[in-house]
Amino acid sequence: MSQSTKLPLYITLATFVLAFVLCAAQYPAMASTRVVANLLTDNAFLGITAVGMTFVILSGGIDLSVGSVIAFTGVFLAVILRDTSIHPLVAFALVLLITTGFGAAMGGIIHYLEMPPFIVTLAGMFLMRGLAYVLSTESVPITHEFYDWLQSLYWKAPGGGRFRITGALMLLTYVAAMIVLHRTRFGQNVYAIGGSAQTAQLMGVPRARTTIGIYAVSGGLAGLAGIVYTLYTSAGYSLATVGVELDAIAAVVIGGTLLSGGSGFVAGTFFGILIMGLIQTYIVFDGTLSSWWTKIVIGGLLFAFIMLQKGLGWATTARIRLLTASDARS
Amino acid sequence: MPEPVLHARGISKFFPGAIALDDVELALYPGEVHALLGENGAGKSTLIKCLTGAYSRDGGTIALSGAEIDPRDPLDSQALGIGTVYQEVNLLPNLTVAENLFLGRQPMRWGMVDHRRMKREAREVLRDYGLEIDPARLLSSYSIAIQQIVAIARAVELSGKVLILDEPTASLDHDEVQLLFSVIERLKGRGLAIVFITHFLDQVFAISDRATILRNGRVVGTRRLADVSQTEIVTLMLGRALEEATHHRARSEPGELLLSLRGYGKRGSIAPFDMDIREGEVIGLAGLLGSGRSETANVVFGVVAADQGKAELRGRPLRIATPREAIRNRFALCPEDRKTDGIVGDLSVRENIILSLQARQGWHRPIPRARAEEIAQHYVKALDIRLASLDMPIRLLSGGNQQKALLARWLATEPELLILDEPTRGIDVGAHAEIIALIEDLREKGMALIVASSEMEELVAYSSRIVVLRDRRQVGELTGHEISTKSIVEAIAAEDAA
Q1: Are B90 and A188 inside 8 Å of each other by CB?
Q2: pTM beyond 0.80, yes or no
Q3: Which UniProt keywords apply (chain A) (predicted)?
Q4: What is the distance in angstroms between the Cα of A202 and the nearest Cα belonging to chain B?
């Protein structure tokens, strides 16, 4: 990939580093391993969700159902562990199968019925939220010794930071996603479809398989995020994670991925997540600011990044025009 | 003579109410460039679509290297050996050159895409096509000509026997065309059979060995180009001798001063200029690509608002900052790119024709259906627009007919000043002559016209005056007997000497 496509990624990275340095200058305690470890733990479920969202947005689509899928996953796990004696690992496998299948089904509808992803996943959002209500309207606590064991696993870094298994899972997801997007044909096809679905098809990209795969990845990762979320809260609640899909979209866009598809990096999404987490941490440290400031700053950042993309778009067009003009003259 | 690499026989294709192809034969030999010629609607595109499987044919056989084939779709025909490259580059601008070349067949290493090998092989492949470019850069960072060559490289690497080039030069300038031709020569040397479709007869003679001419879905002749003249080819295409569009007869005197522009311009778009346009006058805008022809047209019509200078319409001061204001003052503009700026593809021909008239009336006063029908019918007849029904979507018309329908749209508003930007681009010879005749006719009726065109012969034929542009400023004006292609070229070049 050339310099110009990586520029938004570098800008996101620079924004994060700058923000972190500024925060640490004001509150030196923010530069501790404790804060870094919490940043990973607190944002693990959102981070994993955003990976799936990156696939979807890179292909030019959108997935509004992920917040509901996380809630459904939580309630499903809580209820099944309360009412039956199956092992959590089996329950995990089962719920991942359901959510992946659910994503694949949405992908299939989007492709074969030629429906806009917005509408299909909006329907999916209501469907999954409704299913979660059907299972239980109340918050169901999860008490299982396997859960206790998973939650007790951590690596204590010097400085007191506890790096937990959920944070590691998120990092692993990002590494896996990078490999899939840049090193497999499926990944290349995601970019191709995002560039122009019609052209991609003319060039032999299996459009049906790829679209279904993309939404299956998003659904499956939302399921994984749901599992992580139950490890984080020890409960399943049908009203949880409302609006998380929008946070995930925000992280992807702040990470430099074009909403129109075809251009962006999953690494950018990672820093998008970290920037959003950092703002929250800063507000906690400050203590006087209302937590709504998180939303305001994220809103401002989103706007700034959209303007930036627009500006880069103009710059590229101008450069090409110049290039063509000089070609013509020579 | 060797065996033909591709031999299509008795190809027929029927559309509801029309025979698109009737018993067409096409034989391609290895190492030849074979031009496919015909007016718009003669069946060139349909034939290509039948050969590549985009359409299923209703009759006939296709043999490739002696074996009969039946491609299901363009991908299938590509796998069999027939590659196609279109005017619009069908590659992905957001991927790198190498990724575009190898999409779907990336070199793999341990189950992973081997980017390094892909880049290296892409560089080697492109070197065969005379391109020394960095394959790791985005396709969109290169000019259209280079993108076109990358598309050709991909098609040839995937197919390797027959290459179909469908109007590849339509959006290229002179130097880029030469670059493309050098690639075609190389491929010819490699023994490929190449089908070349274009509207530019000069290019046909420059690069092709043989030509098959289609008219109304039938083959009217296959010729070795070394043996025939341009006139003969054109006569075959039209089925009649072409009236030479030459300069020129007595012109009626221009009428009253209509529009007067003083120091009119827009920074970064077109340098300030003076212009007077009278009724019954055609002002030609001449110049090279990017010299400011379209920019002049756009600033007069308010597509980009002028930021300096004054305008007067019939002696009264006038301000035009938007096309709406221009339309209200009875201006009309037929833009250069009819596909993106002109036609609304999915609307019917009738709706497209009355669009501007309706827009001027305001949407709260819809034109009655019967009246719309009448207007559309009138112009379809007056301009000889060939169509099956007024209700068909305009995108189904051929290029020349789309252009005429666009003209009809603006004529329906009965403008006093008609601005035409490249009115004859991408349309066939027959429609070309008709549009030129139409321009003359409108002038005779007292309309004022501004016509921007890259075809100098054409400008010479109908212009009362010619404004010559260079580097986005006016560099000269030719009137009366000064007007000739030679003097235009001199006016363009004069600045160079200075």
Answers
A1: no
A2: no
A3: Cell membrane, Membrane, Transmembrane, Transmembrane helix
A4: 7
